[in-house]
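Lecture 7 notes: from sequence to structure.
We start with the chain below.
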Amino acid sequence: MLMPKRVKHRKMHRGRMKGKATQGNRISFGEFGIIAMEPAWITSRQIEASRIAMTRHIKRGGKVWIRIFPDKSYTKKPLETRMGKGKAPVEGWVAVVKPGRVLFEMSGVSVEVAKEAMRLAIFKLPIRCKFVTKADLEAMAAIAPKEVEPAEETAAE
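Predicted structure tokens for the same chain:
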């Protein structure tokens, strides 16, 4: 399972998952991808389960890229333990995912095979996700800045 080799601090604050993903929101390596629609912590086990589901379906035909890494530790107190006595030991590792983040990418297979493989992978994840192609994302990115431009023109007048 994925986890960092070493970290500066073992135990981390929980943090926030406000807003949309500003990094990792484009398909950089493959032709197809899975995009997160909700914010969540995705554990290393869930990432591994999704990866296995995808690679089994494509029968080692294409290439799969994992675009998220579980570099945040989370802690958990044992059951029936009283409050206090410090922070609990590290339980596992999670990747912080915001809406719009590309989770997995794939290439080297047909659209139908990629769509089905990624559908199986999405079932393993705890959030709503969407299958996209590189062309779809580029089209969405081209539309988004145009919506902002008219507002700037009216402000200038």
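Points to note: The chain has a mean pLDDT of 90. The two ends are 56 Å apart (CA to CA).
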